[in-house]
From TrEMBL:
Pfam families: YajC (PF02699). Residues 91-109 have a biased composition (Acidic residues). It is a single-pass membrane protein. PANTHER family: SEC TRANSLOCON ACCESSORY COMPLEX SUBUNIT YAJC. It comes from Nakamurella multipartita (strain ATCC 700099 / DSM 44233 / CIP 104796 / JCM 9543 / NBRC 105858 / Y-104) (Microsphaera multipartita). Keywords: Cell membrane, Membrane, Protein transport, Translocation, Transmembrane, Transmembrane helix, Transport. Residues 89-127 are annotated as: Disordered. GO terms for biological process: protein transport. Belongs to the YajC family. This is Preprotein translocase, YajC subunit.
Length: 127
């Protein structure tokens, strides 16, 4: 009788793990379904493929996303992975350089290199 107790306990533990795992997955699926049902025009979303866009129209089972100004694509609601909350805007690469960080230098008279008549170097490179 004791030899049967261990396999029964193992199957019970396995069954409990499967039950709780399925329960968690159902809860997550319900949350995603609820989020997809509450999409409204103007929401920023990310699809399951990683495409970011703004919802412009909502139908029964499809949505229309604007992925670039004037470019709209139609998606199945189930393709929406999450609603994206915009964060703080970071300084762009082009904005990181100011007029103070560059210096305009005329062509080098020794080499005769004109390089279009102007050589531009970052001031950090002039050390």
């Amino acid at each position: 009788m004791e030899s049967m107790l261990l396999p029964i306990l193992m199957f019970a533990a396995l069954g409990a793990l499967m039950y709780f795992s399925m329960k968690k997955q159902k809860r997550q699926a319900a949350a995603v379904k609820e989020m997809q049902n509450q999409l409204v025009p103007g929401s920023r979303v990310m699809t399951t493929s990683g495409l970011h866009g703004t919802v412009t129209a909502v139908a029964d089972d499809t949505i229309e996303l604007e992925v670039a100004p004037g470019m709209r694509t139609t998606w199945v609601r189930a393709a929406v992975r999450e609603v994206v909350v915009p964060g703080p805007v970071e300084e762009s690469y082009e904005d990181s350089y100011t007029d103070e960080s560059t210096e305009i230098v005329d062509a080098d008279p020794d080499t005769g290199s004109t390089n279009g008549g102007i050589n531009i170097r970052k001031s950090n490179d002039l050390n």
